[in-house]
Amino acid sequence: MIDRNLLLFVSGIITLLTSCQAQPASDKANQQKAPARSQQPVGGGCEGCELMYVAMPNEITPEHRSIGWTEGTQKLIVTGRVFQRDGKTPAPGVIIYYWHTDENGLYSSNSLTPANARQHGKHRGWVKSDKDGNYTMKTVRPGAYPNDVIPQHIHLSIKEPDIPQEYYADLYFEDDPLYAGHVKKYGKADRAGNELLRVRREGGVQIAEHAVILGLNIPNYPDK
Question: From residue 110, how far is each of 68, 118, 170 by CA, in Å?
Answer without folding.
Answer: 12, 9, 24
